[in-house]
Specification:
By secondary structure, this protein is mostly helical. It contains 9 helices and 2 strands; from the N terminus they run E-E-H-H-H-H-H-H-H-H-H. The protein has helices spanning about 15-20, 25-65, 70-90, 100-125, 130-150, 150-155, 160-170, 175-195, 195-205; strands spanning about 1-5, 5.
Length: about 200
């Protein structure tokens, strides 16, 4: 891609360059403010949801504290900080890939969608599956897809693993949902078949 006789290093710089050099000053400010606001609203919602789930589903059951306990409030603030740092660190892992930001974002999102879709299919099309089977399938499915997503970073950090991780690093992101869904369903169905006693016990309870 060329502009003004110069070549763009990545396609991600096309729109920012257009905003800075071609748009009027007032419209540039409004557009930049809109982009920042959209990014902040998305990230703040994600961080708040992760912190709330960590506080209510992990901290409170383990400690026995109530929701209005000051310690619970402090724990929620710590979870917010921790998840903010974790998400920032995860984003930095993808900064030097040379891949368009849209492709990276869709790839990251896709590796969780497969697990969620697999759980949906288990609940609707495999009556023998229990909550335990769905959780097991979801955990293994997302873990496997996280390995696939970060295979490129792992191969760069550990060059001696390049040959083993190469096939996984070359998987295109549109396949993530299909692979994640398949793994989740296979694990969930296998769990319901291999552990029928646990299934019956959970149904009786």
């Amino acid at each position: 891609v060329h502009f003004g006789g110069q070549t763009f290093a990545t396609t991600d710089s096309i729109f920012p360059r257009f905003i800075i050099e071609q748009m009027p000053a007032g419209l540039t400010g409004l557009l930049v403010a809109a982009i920042i606001a959209a990014a902040m609203s998305t990230q703040s919602g994600s961080i708040n949801s992760l912190a709330a789930a960590s506080t209510h589903d992990i901290y409170m059951p383990l400690t026995g504290r109530a929701a209005d306990d000051p310690a619970t409030f402090r724990a929620g603030r710590r979870f917010t900080l921790a998840w903010g740092i974790a998400l920032t660190g995860g984003a930095l892992l993808f900064r030097d890939q040379g891949t368009p930001v849209v492709v990276v974002a869709l790839g990251i999102a896709s590796f969780t969608y497969g697990g969620l879709l697999g759980v949906f299919f288990l609940g609707n099309f495999w009556p023998r599956a229990t909550q335990r089977d769905a959780i097991l399938g979801l955990t293994i499915g997302i873990s496997a897809m996280a390995f696939v997503v970060f295979a490129r970073q792992l191969s760069a950090a550990f060059p001696w693993l390049g040959d083993a991780l190469g096939p996984f690093a070359r998987i295109a992101w549109p396949w993530y949902v299909l692979i994640g869904t398949s793994i989740t369903m296979i694990v969930g169905i296998s769990s319901s078949v291999l552990f029928p006693r646990a299934r019956r016990a959970s149904q009786d309870s």
